[in-house]
Design a protein that fits this description.
The structure holds two protein chains of two kinds. By secondary structure, chain A is of the alpha/beta class. Chain A contains five helices and six strands; from the N terminus they run ββααββββααα. Helix content of chain A is 41%, strand content 21%. In chain B, strands 2-1-3-4 form a four-stranded parallel β-sheet. The chains are: A alpha/beta, B alpha/beta.
């Protein structure tokens, strides 16, 4: 399981469209060999087919596809967008944070999801995510959160 | 009582919803069987309630189950009020 490790986080990446944002977050997982490139295509396809339901809280998108679309290891990456983007979510646009989820069929999947819920269920953590400027600060939030 | 938490693929988003719905139900001492599932499977399953996002709720109209919309999947207060407003034991 790889959860928001240093190479899986990119701060203030520019993206012009939701697809670019999803692909940027997916590319971080591909670069670490956690998913196959076709999984990124599957995430984009799912967005086109099912719409922006994965924008599951204000500012937060969690694109993903199915384990059989090419996941090698349960994983989560984060792109904090330079500029917020409209994904088409009535309730939760605009999106600033794209958490790409490598959805695995292993038991680690549940563990990864619990980590996401623990991190994002606290409003204060979202404020910190907006303000932080280094990976070390993110590490501190995650570390404190899981103590 | 059976509750389906529905998202497009039944992998990620609906699992988060299920975790938080179960926590809210626990606090309220409501016994329920909560499952997470994808949209197309959900249409062929019977349940008392379906909890999902605004975007997917429209596709689930016409189901016998009562459809409940949650916008912020991490907001326990919203989830609890949605349960209070819609679910009766």
């Amino acid at each position: 399981m790889k959860f928001l490790e240093e190479n899986l986080v990119a701060l203030d990446l520019p993206a012009a469209t939701p697809e670019e944002g999803i692909r940027a977050a997916g590319a971080l997982l591909v670069a670490e060999n956690l998913i196959e490139p076709r999984y990124v295509d599957a995430m984009v396809e799912s967005y086109k087919k099912n719409g922006p339901y994965f924008v599951l809280a204000p500012q937060i998108a969690m694109p993903h596809a199915r384990p059989e679309d090419g996941v090698k290891e349960a994983s989560v990456s984060l792109v904090r967008l330079k500029n917020s983007l409209e994904f088409g979510s009535e309730a939760n646009d605009p999106v600033r944070f794209v958490f790409a989820l490598g959805a695995s069929s292993s038991e680690e999947h549940l563990l990864v999801m619990k980590k996401i819920v623990a991190l994002l269920s606290k409003a204060e953590n979202i404020e910190k995510l907006k303000a932080l400027s280094t990976y070390e600060e993110l590490q501190q939030i995650i570390g404190r959160n899981e103590q | 009582m059976k509750i389906l938490c529905v998202c497009g693929l039944g992998q990620g988003t609906s699992l988060i919803l299920k975790m938080n719905v179960e926590e809210a139900l626990n606090e309220k001492n409501i016994m329920a069987d909560v499952e997470h599932i994808d949209l197309s499977s959900a249409t062929s399953m019977s349940a008392d309630y379906i909890i999902t996002s605004n975007e997917l709720a429209e596709s689930l109209q016409g189901q016998p189950a009562k459809v409940i919309v949650v916008n912020n999947y991490f907001d326990m207060e919203e989830i609890k009020s949605a349960i209070d407003a819609n679910i009766t034991e």
